Amino acid sequence: MEKEALLKQIKGRLIVSCQARVGWAMYGAEIMACFAAAAAEGGAAGIRANGVDSILAIKKKVDLPLIGLNKEWITGYPVYLTPTYAHAKAILDAGVDVLAMDATDRLRPNGETAASILKQIREHYPNALVMGEISTLEEAKNILDMGFDFISTTLSGYTKESEDVKSVNLELIKDIHAITDIPIIAEGKIKTEDEAVQTLAAGAFAVVVGTSITRPEIITKRYVDTITKYHEGEHYEDTVR
Asked: What is the pTM of this model?
């Protein structure tokens, strides 16, 4: 999909992240494809997915813009979101609309950097759209001139540099929006519909939600924990109306 068409499709709208790791109850490419189809039925403007198998399965079921990434946890390296050019190439060859990659300056295998990976992508996939994922304002500032098409807040709260972030980071979105016109994709720790809207009000171009839509075990636990608190004596007025 051409960039202008993609921007028009996702502007101000919801992208649903359909991901699961090995060992999770919902793991599997076909399950992710079903989640994506359900998201499409619900009105999602796009899908975010991890790994070649899931991406190919989703493409068979859903005709929506697809943000793809390639996660791998490599011993000794903190970067796991599309950590090397080889990881990026695999996802681009699978046919995604946007490649998502860690854009921090943290250590990667083979001496690669975010800049070197992006340079190779531009050489071999000149029409590819690439999203740089960061966790802090300083990291966002560092990539403004690299040539990323999007900036995502995905990593906020998931790096050592942002470990104090425990909820959706609206201030980070506002701060990035104040210094660049690069479209910001808000993601990370967005639990409610209201929080999703708040990210857009803060300056996000579009919003990605994953856990609160596609992690039924986490959603179930929230209900169970709240009911447990009720039984332990905490007062909830809405429960007795």
From this structure: 0.94
